[in-house]
Design a protein that fits this description.
Blueprint lengths: L9 H59 L19 H28 L4 H12 L3 E10 L2 E12 L9 H18 L2 H10 L10 E5 L3 H8 L2
Antiparallel strand pairs: 1-2, 2-3
Pfam family, one: DUF3067
InterPro entries: DUF3067
Length: 225
Amino acid sequence: MLRAGCTFGPPCSRSGRSRAAAEAIGAARPRRAARGAAAASRSGSGHSSSHSSSHSSSSHSSSSHSSSRRPRPACTCRATAADGGGGEGDLTAVFAAELAKRAAEAEAAKEAAAAREFNGGALLALVRAKYNRSYDFSLVQRQYMGKHFVALNIMWKYAEQASWPYSEEQFAARLDYIASALVAWGAVTSVQTQLAATKERPRTGKAVSLFLDVSPERAAEWFGA
């Protein structure tokens, strides 16, 4: 009688094949696991390399973008007075000179208009309007600390006084001479402005002085050498 564990016959043959198949499957599992681990390793390495490459590309792009946004150096092409190019300093000087020229022209026109009909009567009218009296005038020049001064003095004597020393004709001639000197010196508007602004009043022994911008050479024409 045969035993169930024999190595030949159909039952035993099927059992043997089953065990052989199981052993083959068991041996294949570690190989498949090893292949899967290797593939995973390669995939992880590729992903890491791709991520690194992407990061490097992003860094390069960021660096390129950053470098393109670097501040530009200041322009040094602006012309300056030092290099003869007519810079802002020159423009300012030209503008200031033009303003001064226009102001001088306007002042000259104003002086010419004021002097056109200025005479002794007009000079006396200025003083009467200011002080309500017909004060006498005197032109004086002085040298002080090396400087030359010319002034129109409004004296303390006036025509309404009983002790007035001049006749009407003498006083008129005196006024006309002084007015002619003011016109020749271009000092009419200066006298008008100073007289309107002063708060001083002639009093005994003290005149009101209106200082004039007159050169010694031009003053000498009226005062004598």
